[in-house]
Amino acid sequence: MQQSDLTESRINDDFLFWLKNSGPNWLLAVLVVLCLAMGWNWWKNKQGQARDVAWSELSEADIPATLRDVAAKHADVDSVASFALLTAADRFLQSVVSGQRFDREPSAADVAVTPELRREWLLEAQALYGEVLTRAESSSDPNAVAFEVAALFGLAAVAESRGEVDAAKSALERVNAKTTDRMPWISKQAKARIETIALVSSPYQIPDAPMPQGVLPDGTRFNLPAGSSVTDQEAMRALIGGLQGGAMTPASDQPLVPPPPADPVAPAAPAAPSGDAPKP
Q1: In this structure, is residue 3 part of a structural domain?
Q2: Which of 64, 147, 148, 153 has the fewest CB atoms lying closer than 10 Å?
């Protein structure tokens, strides 16, 4: 019993000695680990809050100016900046295509996009699509190819709006090259647009309008003077001349007047009955 008490006393003394000499160091190490863990959790929460704020501001932005501010403010948060710049470019391009300004009410007197504003907004859209393309090409994220393809489609649309067929075709060919293996359905769409551009850019000869024709009651067809219709006055003169003379006659300069009605014919007197007339 006495030996057991001595052993426990020696253990307690050893622990107290260790605690006195090494305990503060271990306690400090534990505190450092706890602080690091708390700091990591705080940083993660802050990052999550920043991400939530960035996406919330992006969803609330509706005009290119605010979208640009969101892109500049949250340039390092996920893909917020690329989304914001792409949306801003789309707003400019959509207004040019629709002919209505995005910063005006539909009932406003100046809602129409003027030729000067059209040129300016096409330049803005081109610059924004180009910035998105540059970001996507320099990104190490494999999913950035989606922004690259979207930007190239946008640049092709801008070129089409300007009538620059070669530039539009070049952008679409880049889309086709990037998506042939990874996204064949997008490659198919790019090829279809390339074929459409080639068709639209090819010259098309519009045939001359056929010479108007009139039809007589007996079914005979005859050509009217060029530029006339079957309802104008000259055509009616020609039709009446054909009916009256049996052949087409030149139209006069006098206005068309219907012929006067024929004089009515008096009815004949009734015939007298046969035999002697009654005497009065």
Answers
A1: no
A2: 153
H or E segment and range at residue 222: strand 221-223
- Between the alpha carbon of residue 198 and those of residues 175, 187, 204, the distances in Å are 17, 17, 12
Number of domains in the chain: 2
Which residues constitute the domain of residue 229? 213-245
Taking the chain, what is the end-to-end CA distance rounded to the nearest angstrom?
187
Per the domain annotation, does 128 fall within a domain?
Answer: yes
Residues 221, 152 share a domain: no
* CATH number of 68's domain: 1.25.40
Q: Is residue 262 part of a domain?
A: no
pLDDT in tens, the chain (280 residues): 545 555 656 666 666 666 666 666 766 777 777 777 777 776 766 666 778 888 888 888 889 999 999 999 888 888 899 999 999 999 999 999 999 999 888 888 989 999 999 999 999 999 999 999 999 998 888 888 999 999 999 999 999 999 899 999 999 999 999 898 888 999 999 999 988 886 765 555 666 655 555 555 566 665 655 555 545 555 556 555 554 554 444 444 444 444 555 555 555 555 555 545 445 4
